[in-house]
Fold:
Amino acid sequence: MTDEIYLYNTETRKKEKFIPQVEGVVQFYSCGQTVYEDVHVGNAKTYVVWDVLVKTLRYFGYHVNHVQNFTDVGHLTDDADEGEDKIQKKAKALKMDPMELVDIKIREYHHNMDKIEVGRPNIAPRATGHINEMIDLVRLLIEKKHAYELDGSVYYDISSFEDYGKMARLDLDNLEAGARIEVNTGKKNPGDFALWIKAPKEHIMKYTSPWSIGYPGWHLECSVMSNKYLGDTLDIHAGGIDHIPVHHTNEIAQSEGATDKKFANYWVHSAFITVNGKKMSKSKNNFVTLEELIKEVGRGAARFTLTQAHYRTQADFSLEQARNFRKRYYRIIKSYHLALQYLHTLEGEIKDEDRNYSEKILMNFNKAMADDLNTPQAIIQINTIAKRLDQYRKKGDNFQLIKALEVLRTMMTVLGIPLIELKDDEIDNVNNMISLRIKLKANGDFDASDKIRDHLSSLNYILQDISAEETQWYKE
Ligand code: AMP
Ligand code: ZN
Structure:
């Protein structure tokens, strides 16, 4: 495909034409989940965005190497290198080994993401599997005078890295003046962050290093794992906008301090899902888990809901709104199913001919996705084609109908929104039961006809009576 893709690059605050280092190949790293709690709708939206990005790039013909980590050590309850390890804290409360909790949460993560069609990354590395590489990176940063040891811990000297905070446009003077009173007075600059932290005796998740028995700082893992699996310079690095001022700022300082090369050419950040205007978060306890959303509206409508807003637009979430999106999702499915049923009756009679209109819609869709993943525009094209399915079916315009179906399938696949398929014998069976029901009703045998409706409804077939002789149906 020849379309050019444009992405909004946080570093330049501009939409830029996407040009990878090697033609046709994309080295893509996204920051993944800290695995100690259920994935909530805000987290899920962010992972759906990276999935839409990967699917779009692949649709446009790129070979994408996608790495997304699991954080299973070192993420503290406080961003300023204080507090307890989030995983250890939760594991203690559950009286469980931290690594057992991690395994459970990783399994759940995959299970739920599979349900909403989020493709698995090519590699999903875990921080604990890369402690040696992290120690090597810390050693190199000390050698290059970017880091220093202090009482068994190691800190990054942010004054040693000229561009510190550049991507985030941090105002360092204000930042330092406003920094809280330092507990560890030995740090060179109040903003210096921990690369290695000496563990107190009672700490469970600790490892041997040249400086102390301790554990790595949270930001280290992404520098190490992105470098190991994707190389010195990434084409795209992604994460939630909350990562810009601290996590990604520190990743850049670590990686560029070590390699003297640019860490990432495009920085892509996803905006927050809010609840009544406030960020959905574990700590605010205002979250709905992905599992709850799927239970409430089903997996297809869950994915449809999470694809609605543009990824850089903050969007408010409620279950009520999700139920609305569920209705819109099934409007598309209904058009799809009625088209499938119609074509089922025409087997063998279909020829190829003029398919222009659907091509135009597909071009609009492609243009929308190439323009910084404009999913709201893309969904408008999906709704247009769904309406067209109904029109072509009613007119008996089979050629247009088949092309429109093809286009709908393509668009839904790129956005990862599942279509519900119907098998041929399934269509026959349901149609037979519905014919029988119509006859029974005509004979006044409403008990029997209601039983058929109830039976079909228990199998998720939704019946809509159009007249005494006609009933439309689709499957949920
Ligand atoms: P965490 O487990 O808190 O590290 O979050 C995992 C990912 O979800 C990160 O990329 C966060 O930026 C993202 N995230 C967390 N909360 C939200 C939210 N309310 N809306 C969108 N993304 C979020
Ligand atoms: Zn990261």
Summary: The chain has a mean pLDDT of 93. The domain at 329-415 is CATH 1.20.120 (Four Helix Bundle (Hemerythrin (Met), subunit A)). The chain has three domains: 6-270, 329-415, 425-475.
